[in-house]
Design a protein that fits this description.
The structure holds 2 protein chains of 2 kinds. Chain A is mainly alpha-helical. Chain A has helices spanning 8-41, 48-81, 84-90, 93-96, 101-122, 134-148. Chain A folds into 3 domains: 12-43; 47-83; 95-148, no CATH class. In chain B, 65% of the residues lie in helices and 0% in strands. Chain B is built from 9 helices and no strands. In chain B, helix 2 packs antiparallel against helix 3, helix 2 packs across helix 7 and helix 7 (156-167) packs across helix 9 (183-202). The N and C termini of chain B lie far apart (52 Å). Classes of the chains: A mainly alpha, B mainly alpha. Chain A binds chain B through residues 18-19, 21-22, 24-26, 28-38, 40-41, 45-46, 51, 54-56, 58-59, 62-63, and chain B through 45-47, 49-50, 53-54, 58-64, 67, 106-107, 110, 113, 115-116, 118, 122-123, 126, 128-129, 140-141, 143-144, 146-148, 151, 166-167, 169, 194, 197-198, 201-202.
Chain lengths: 149, 205
């Protein structure tokens, strides 16, 4: 098997070719850039208002659009959090204690879970409520048993 | 914009020695050149615009900064003492404006949304010299497009130095003066820029 030895002359020629191509590309690039700039410079300076509609207006509109989108996402969440049903139970003495934002956020989450738990408990039908008058019921049952005897 | 008194008192007067006469004359010419500002705009606008277009690849930004460049030059015309050529002075203003532009965090963030970025279509009517056949012209446009992308990926400093050297054809010491860098730093940026371009252009084959 014959291995082809790297020929320094060929390598040098490759380098020269690379350089020649780069020089040619740079020349073409310069020529093209001059063409573009001359074409652009042939136009009069655009009035400020017209420029605003392009470059600066874009700089205003794009962030504004982002802010509007963020508001559209955040607002329903905030409205939900401030709903009267949830607010009443969330505002507890613990939440009114001044603290860091993180603490408040954690408390809110906990309170929200408590609120959900409370709502679910209240929603249980009467028939399934825990027996409140256990003693009375027990006495009645005892009496009934005694009468039957 | 005519009838501007542009020769600052004390700049031209009191030149010590005859050896400085030539330098003073050049300064005087540069200052007088600034007197007809309409002519200054007419002559130098393509050059400033070309530099900014090549560096920013955003037509609106380049146009805006070109306009600001001449506005700043107009406002600061009394401070121009002719120590450098008018071209260097204007280019320095453009470089500073571009630096501020690129430093702006919001602009840097929104740079990716360049709506008026130049693309290959802008050179569709460009006819390269000595390439009359459509095939050769298309090949040249491909080369320019590749070069365009490669230049766009250079760092801001590398791009500025590259554009000033190879598009504006400025001397290295003039670039150093314009950008406010050491000559060795300019050489270093240029060397790296060329190495990157060579690698990227070579990798396309």
């Amino acid at each position: 098997m014959k291995f082809r030895k790297e020929n320094p002359e060929e390598s040098g020629a490759g380098t020269r070719d690379d350089m020649r191509e780069l020089v040619e590309a740079i020349g073409l690039y310069r020529s093209a850039m001059r063409h573009v700039a001359e074409k652009q410079a042939g136009r009069p300076f655009a009035p400020v208002a017209q420029r605003a509609s392009g470059f600066r207006l874009r700089m205003v509109l794009v962030p504004a659009l982002g802010a509007a989108l963020a508001a559209a996402v955040i607002t329903p969440t905030v409205v939900h959090m401030h709903h009267p049903a949830t607010t009443a139970s969330r505002v507890s003495p613990a939440a009114q204690v001044p603290g860091t934002a993180t603490t408040v956020a954690k408390m809110d989450d906990t309170q929200l879970m408590d609120q959900i738990d409370s709502d679910l408990t209240e929603g249980v039908p009467d028939a399934l409520q825990p027996l409140t008058g256990w003693d009375d019921t027990a006495n009645k049952a005892t009496k009934t048993a005694g009468t039957e005897k | 914009m005519e009838e501007i008194a542009t020769t600052p008192a004390g700049v031209l007067a009191g030149a010590p020695g005859a050896g400085n006469e030539l330098a003073i004359e050049k300064k005087e010419q540069a200052v007088l050149e600034l007197a007809d500002f309409d002519e200054v705009v007419r002559v130098y606008r393509p050059r400033i615009l070309r530099f900014l277009l090549s560096s920013l690849t955003d037509r609106d930004a380049a146009e805006t900064l070109t306009q600001e460049c001449f506005l700043k030059a107009w406002n600061a015309r009394h401070q121009f003492r002719g120590d450098s050529s008018l071209s260097t002075w204007l280019t320095r203003i453009a470089v500073n404006l571009m630096r501020d532009h690129l430093r702006s965090r919001s602009l840097r963030f929104w740079q990716k949304t360049k709506g008026t970025a130049l693309d290959v279509m802008d050179i569709s009517d460009w006819i390269p010299d000595g390439r009359s056949s459509p095939e050769n012209a298309a090949l040249a446009r491909d080369q320019v497009a590749g070069m365009w992308k490669a230049v766009d990926q250079l760092s801001a400093q590398q791009r500025s130095v590259f554009v000033l050297r190879f598009v504006e054809e400025m001397e290295l010491d003039e670039i150093a003066e314009t950008i406010g860098m050491n000559l060795s730093t300019v050489k270093s940026h240029l060397y790296r820029a060329l190495a990157i371009l060579r690698e990227r252009m070579g990798g396309k084959r």
